[in-house]
């Protein structure tokens, strides 16, 4: 029953976040909270602190008083949208500026943690069932690595797999971030769709990574691991592996319905070098099990001869089986650690592979973070230095393949990588460099 004039006077004393919240109370509050006069004051004071609304020279505010066209010729909520757009644009610029700082060792952004702290970024998954109901799972556990982030969700009240259709992974940031106060879970938030996965026939259509006494792991591209309780059609946990090179862009720059698509690379043509695009690659490779690191290595001057281009792939030999000087020992027993509210475990003979391939200019050319499982090969080691069982681990996506061979040394209880070969799609190379191989 309070007059609108008094409510508008009260609303004019609120900050932007409180104003957005009060607009959700009812239809009348929503209309009043969209008042252009209130939002124009917020717009002016926050973005032009040295100017008053009487002296603003933007295209939208060419008038000199609140009673002029700057207010009355605009639809309700216009200045609210302008305020939010300008604030989010400034926020994205500030965060992405931090990403431009590169580590000379890996060639990747070295201030990711700082950027994520500034942005107030978090991640959630949304499970949608056959009835259209959505189940939101928050409060993940985070594990930071040199080049990737592993996000783990678990709970006891998840829907049965039989009724689930899709799983969506979102990056979530405050709509109007304020560094002076911690993010409010119940405040207005912005969602950025990172990936969407179809869960129908999960156990039949996805790749089996491994199993232990309690769970079985299924891999969904890109980079998602779903743990199922053995003997039950119920999800135990969900683990997402996010590469730093794609993490912030996909978590911030997308929308709630459309994934962020990076702009295409602008090739720098080189008419002098006949093998331009086939040499001077750098690789950074991490193998880990979420909580433990098994291998961290960097390799320079990788190349491919034209004669080695076969079946639509450029072959880059990183570790040659014939050169024992470059064979790599792996620390620890390979496996992926998992946990829930009650149980913990370790699924052996699998790991998470973080791959970063840089081109000759140091630009990230091919990057991913994904679970990989090992298989016992039928052949035995013919190497003089290493006698033991051979295991293979392969990964493939639309941009290339990775083939790794391990030898298990029973005496020392360790794995040795004796072969590591990358196969990069010629389509990827041609589009990146503007060449034609």
TrEMBL record:
SMART domains, A to Z: FBOX (SM00256)
Q: Which domain of life is it from?
A: Eukaryota
F-box domain ranges (all copies): 1-42
- Extract the InterPro entries matched here: F-box-like_dom_sf, F-box_dom
GO terms for cellular component: SCF ubiquitin ligase complex
Q: Keywords, A to Z?
A: Signal
Fetch the Pfam families from UniProt: F-box-like
Query: Where in the sequence is the signal peptide annotated?
Result: 1-16
Instruction: State the protein's name.
Output: FBX15 protein
Native species: Setophaga kirtlandii
């Amino acid at each position: 029953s309070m007059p609108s004039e008094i409510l508008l006077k009260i609303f004019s004393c609120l900050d932007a976040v409180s104003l957005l919240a009060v607009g959700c109370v009812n239809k009348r509050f929503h209309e009043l909270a969209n008042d252009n006069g209130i939002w124009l004051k917020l717009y002016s004071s926050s973005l032009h602190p040295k100017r008053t609304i009487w002296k603003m020279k933007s295209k939208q505010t060419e008038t000199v008083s609140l009673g002029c066209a700057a207010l009355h010729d605009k639809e309700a909520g216009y200045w609210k949208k302008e305020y939010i757009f300008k604030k989010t644009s400034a926020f994205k610029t500030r965060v992405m500026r931090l990403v431009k700082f590169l580590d000379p060792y890996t060639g990747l952004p070295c201030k990711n943690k700082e950027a994520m702290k500034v942005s107030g970024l978090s991640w959630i998954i949304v499970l949608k069932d056959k009835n259209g109901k959505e189940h939101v799972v928050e409060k993940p556990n985070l594990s930071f690595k040199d080049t990737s982030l592993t996000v783990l969700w678990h709970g006891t009240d998840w829907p049965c797999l039989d009724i689930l259709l899709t799983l969506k992974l979102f990056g979530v940031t405050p709509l109007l971030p304020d560094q002076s106060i911690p993010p409010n879970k119940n405040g207005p938030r912005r969602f950025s769709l990172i990936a969407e996965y179809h869960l129908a026939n999960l156990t039949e259509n996805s790749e089996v990574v491994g199993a232990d006494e309690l769970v079985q792991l299924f891999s969904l591209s890109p980079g998602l691991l779903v743990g199922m309780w053995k003997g039950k059609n119920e999800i135990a946990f969900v683990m997402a592996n996010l590469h730093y090179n794609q993490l912030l862009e996909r978590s911030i720059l997308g929308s709630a319905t459309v994934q962020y698509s990076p702009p295409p690379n602008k090739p720098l043509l080189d008419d002098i070098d006949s093998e331009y695009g086939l040499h001077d690659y750098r690789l950074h490779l991490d193998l880990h099990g979420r909580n433990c690191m098994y291998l961290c290595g960097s390799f320079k001057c990788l190349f491919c001869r034209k004669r080695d281009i076969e079946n639509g792939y450029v072959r880059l030999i990183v570790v040659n089986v014939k050169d024992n000087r470059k064979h790599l020992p792996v620390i620890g027993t390979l496996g992926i650690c998992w946990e829930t509210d009650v149980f913990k475990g370790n699924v052996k003979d699998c790991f998470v592979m973080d791959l970063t391939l840089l081109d000759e200019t140091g630009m990230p050319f091919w990057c991913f973070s994904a679970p990989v499982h090992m298989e016992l090969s039928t052949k035995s080691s013919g190497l003089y230095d290493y006698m033991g069982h051979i295991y293979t681990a392969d990964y493939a996506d639309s941009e290339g393949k990775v083939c790794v061979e391990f030898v298990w040394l029973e005496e020392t209880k360790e794995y040795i990588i004796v072969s590591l070969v990358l196969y990069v799609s010629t389509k990827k190379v041609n589009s990146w460099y503007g060449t034609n191989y």
